[in-house]
């Protein structure tokens, strides 16, 4: 039997908080379990994403109404209040009376009469008096953090790197619902044909902005189609599609994808190589490389060979200069994909940046000797933090005279990116608001 959608949403939110689980994974699991009616899936998604995304703003709104402070409440009560205020402030189509009534019913069921009356009192006060204004917060970092619901350390770093206007735009776009984009498998179809095929299966799409390989889903579930099962496309963000292009793989070459799972870029590389030559895709664990195998099979890409290994150890056992090109799509803090994974805002700490930057530098150091003279090495991340991006590649170039910036990168990226102020000879940062895609960093280095 299906359950009350708000109760399920609260349960998912509690689990995200407790287990630091990813909201997209948990939400998909819940939807697939059939716990809520089909017609409630939209509301469930909105409640979960909205509450996670706006957590700090919702805390700011609630603070004046909880005398002893929000932290004095049981965690589930705090989450219930946040979810309810989210509805009061942001979901105009839901009547306020219904929001409060549902919250009180859940509070009574999960707690006792006292909890119900506390929740009732707080929400009625919010309804009567309205939420506080951001204007009162005079400190710039704090105000932006509350207004757009980002941790203060992130706001401070972005302000220092990008200034107020860009930071504000970046945070604003991260609060929008994410888009689903598809990469056309050019070995089997093309953009126009795939649009028609998907339409016949009830999925409406439009062409992407940046890539001739991209379709954006406007309506329907593209992953429950025959087109998906028969390998006509792969789920991939548009900026992510630029990475394999930046590598410029050619049929017949020997390529290493050194951090490859779940295989989004490996499969793209194989498609660009017409499935001819060799592509070795390495990732840490067997269960991770299995994901690459599954995608390669679905897309009919037989050239991909997978290896489960720490690429640092793998490179020590591999002869130097084995590959024509290497992709290092490094593990990173993921600050460019907050729109799709809002939990990243709360799960990451500032100290994580330095820790992950050390690993990125180590992996780059380890794979560099495997590149042939004259070969290309692309370093990419889905973060927009300079410590994980420019700082890594600039230090690498300074300490490795055998490498230089690959200025031919401009030939392999779309004109509008090459013309943008963020393009430098050899690398580019794409911010989430530039083209409403994930934030990405792509650098190309050449071995002399
Ligand atoms: C950003 S993800 C790669 C995404 C992938 N390129 C794609 O497009 O689907 C980074 C990957 O690096 C892997 N990784 C982290 N440290 C590694 C190491 N030392 N050796 C190999 N893989 C590593 C992680 O397991 C993770 O799957």
UniProtKB/TrEMBL annotation:
Q: Which GO terms describe its cellular component?
A: cytoplasm
Q: Does the keyword Transferase apply?
A: yes
Which cellular compartments is it found in? Answer: Cytoplasm
Reactions that this protein is recorded to catalyse: cytidine(967) in 16S rRNA + S-adenosyl-L-methionine = 5-methylcytidine(967) in 16S rRNA + S-adenosyl-L-homocysteine + H(+)
Q: What is the official name of this protein in its record?
A: 16S rRNA (cytosine(967)-C(5))-methyltransferase
The principal location of this protein is cytoplasm
Q: InterPro entries, alphabetically?
A: MeTrfase_RsmB-F_NOP2_cat (IPR049560), MeTrfase_RsmB-F_NOP2_dom (IPR001678), Nop2p (IPR011023), NusB-like_sf (IPR035926), NusB_RsmB_TIM44 (IPR006027), RCMT (IPR023267), rRNA_ssu_MeTfrase_B (IPR004573), RsmB-like_ferredoxin (IPR054728)
Q: Which ranges carry the SAM-dependent MTase RsmB/NOP-type domain?
A: 170-448
Q: What is its EC number?
A: 2.1.1.176
């Amino acid at each position: 039997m299906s359950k009350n959608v708000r109760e399920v949403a609260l349960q998912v939110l509690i689990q995200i908080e407790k287990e630091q689980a990813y909201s997209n994974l948990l939400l998909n699991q819940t939807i697939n379990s059939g716990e809520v009616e089909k017609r409630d899936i939209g509301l469930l998604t909105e409640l979960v994403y909205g509450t996670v995304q706006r957590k700090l703003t919702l805390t700011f709104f609630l603070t004046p109404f909880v005398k002893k402070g929000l932290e004095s409440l049981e965690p589930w009560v705090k989450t219930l209040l946040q979810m309810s205020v989210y509805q009061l402030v942001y979901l105009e189509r839901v009547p306020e009376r219904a929001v409060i009534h549902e919250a009180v019913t859940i509070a009574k069921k999960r707690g006792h009469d006292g909890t119900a009356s506390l929740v009732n009192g707080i929400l009625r006060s919010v309804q009567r008096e309205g939420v506080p204004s951001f204007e009162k917060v005079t400190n710039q970092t704090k105000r932006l953090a509350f207004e757009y619901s980002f941790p203060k350390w992130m706001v401070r770093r972005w302000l220092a790197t990008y200034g107020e206007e860009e930071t504000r735009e970046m945070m604003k776009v991260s609060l929008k619902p994410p888009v689903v984009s598809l990469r056309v498998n050019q070995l089997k179809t093309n953009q126009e044909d795939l649009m028609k095929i998907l339409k016949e299966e009830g999925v409406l799409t439009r062409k992407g902005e940046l890539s001739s390989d991209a379709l954006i889903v406007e309506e329907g579930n593209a992953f429950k189609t025959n087109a998906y099962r028969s390998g006509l496309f792969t789920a991939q963000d548009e900026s992510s599609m630029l990475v394999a292009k930046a590598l410029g793989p050619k049929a017949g070459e020997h390529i290493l994808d050194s951090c490859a799972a779940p295989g989004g870029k490996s499969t793209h590389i194989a498609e660009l190589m017409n499935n001819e030559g060799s592509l070795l895709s390495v990732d840490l664990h067997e269960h991770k490389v299995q994901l690459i195998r599954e995608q390669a099979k679905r897309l009919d890409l037989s050239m991909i060979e997978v290896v489960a290994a720490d690429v640092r150890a793998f490179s020590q056992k591999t002869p130097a200069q084995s590959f024509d090109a290497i992709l290092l799509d490094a593990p990173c803090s993921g600050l460019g994909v907050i729109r799709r994974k809002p939990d990243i805002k709360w799960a990451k700490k500032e100290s994580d940046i330095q820790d992950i930057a050390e690993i990125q530098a180590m992996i780059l150091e380890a794979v560099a000797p495997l590149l042939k003279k004259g070969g290309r090495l692309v370093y990419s991340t889905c973060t927009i933090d300079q410590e994980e991006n420019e700082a890594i590649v600039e230090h690498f170039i300074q300490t490795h005279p055998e490498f230089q910036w690959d200025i031919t990168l401009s030939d392999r990226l779309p004109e509008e990116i090459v013309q943008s102020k963020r393009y430098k000879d050899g690398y580019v940062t794409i911010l989430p608001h530039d083209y409403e895609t994930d934030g990405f960093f792509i650098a190309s280095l050449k071995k002399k």
